[in-house]
Design a protein that fits this description.
five-stranded mixed beta sheet, 2 domains, Rossmann fold, about 350 residues, 12 helices, about 35% helix, five-stranded parallel beta sheet, alpha/beta
């Protein structure tokens, strides 16, 4: 940070006006906060921290596209002071609202970029955006009085056992709704998406066996990145009666070898299309080409038989769009003959 004193003062002024309050460890300070939305103070837990608000945030910053789209879905664009790290185009339904939100960084936001937006609340889909060389640690931001939210999906160890990744995603909606005083739209969104998950799960009852699936997210420097155990696709697989072929790897998106993919010999392959991100190996066409020219992968039954599904890559990460990817996988399984 080039101007820590200047930025710190500016941030303090905005926070004094906005009225959000936390201690350095992210908990409520000793004084009793003033009444907020609904006539009472609001607190919520987020990835090991207790966040306290004495009024709804007015200058929230979303550090990634998933968080941005959740806030837009809840109609909170007027209370957003910034967004960052866009991987793909904003869907048409959000474009008008998104145009009202300043872009503080086209890629991952730095500490200086974040603080120049003078936020009173910061929202992120994953904890790795809060580091010293990125937006700053949660401890650093809490010391400045800024509450920081991390998706519950990224820290399942902090949540009740047995809750699925979709359960945690829907809990995010309701936690954010509580913070902003937007409980009704948050509850409505969670209910709609729970119904969509249940509908996709109807496929599971019709599956003749338990097919295996590899989710190919990216190909970088010729190496495949696939969904591991902790990513949302493992839960998608379970819902539709399939099994993630790499659910023994305790990572979200591990780098593996093509030979290891061949060894798992999946019944079908889901390709995440990240064309709009624009990196080498991101598009679905490039991924298909890489598989077709590989001497071993090209001989897999899934490749030779065309048992390949394409879904928007961003929908394979937890977001308001993830139920759409689930629906595509469920429908694709039916089309490929994996359901009666």
């Amino acid at each position: 940070m080039r101007h820590p004193v200047r930025l710190g003062i500016a941030l303090a002024v905005v926070l004094a006006t906005a009225g959000c309050s936390t201690t350095a460890d992210g908990s409520s300070p000793d004084h009793e906060p003033a009444a907020g939305a609904g006539g009472k103070a609001t607190t919520l837990a987020s990835c090991g921290r207790q966040l306290a608000f004495d009024r709804p945030p007015r200058r929230a910053v979303a550090l990634d596209q998933s968080s941005t789209e959740i806030l837009l879905e809840l109609g909170l664009q007027e209370r957003m002071a910034g967004t960052a790290n866009l991987k793909t185009k904003i869907p048409p339904k959000y474009q008008e609202a998104y145009a009202k939100v300043p872009v503080i960084a086209p890629k991952i936001a730095t500490s200086e970029q974040l603080r120049s937006a003078t936020p009173d609340f910061v929202v992120a889909g994953s904890g790795d955006l809060y580091t010293k060389d990125r937006a700053g640690t949660r401890e650093e931001l809490a010391a400045l009085g800024v509450p920081t939210f991390v998706s519950a999906v990224d820290c399942p160890q902090q949540n009740e056992p047995g809750r699925t990744a979709f359960d945690l995603l829907f809990a995010d909606y309701q936690s954010l709704g509580r913070a902003f005083g937007a409980d009704e739209p948050a509850a409505r969104l969670a209910a709609e998406q729970r119904a969509a998950v249940a509908k996709a799960g109807e496929t599971a009852a019709k599956v003749e066996d338990q097919p295996t699936v590899v989710y190919l997210y990216s190909v970088f420097n010729g190496m495949p990145y696939v969904a591991g155990k902790t990513g949302l696709p493992s839960e998608m697989s379970r819902i539709v009666g399939a099994r993630n072929a790499f659910d023994d790897v305790n990572e979200d998106w591990p780098e593996v070898s093509w030979e290891e993919v061949a060894k798992r010999d999946p019944d079908f392959i889901v390709i995440g299309d990240l064309s709009e991100r624009g990196r080498p190996g991101d598009s679905a066409a490039e991924k298909r080409e890489a598989m077709n020219r590989h001497p071993v992968i090209s001989k897999l039954d899934a490749v030779r038989g065309g048992k390949i599904l394409e879904v928007p890559g961003i929908e394979l990460d937890p977001s308001v769009r993830s139920v759409h990817a689930l629906e595509l996988v469920a429908a694709g399984m039916r089309d490929l003959g994996h359901a009666r």
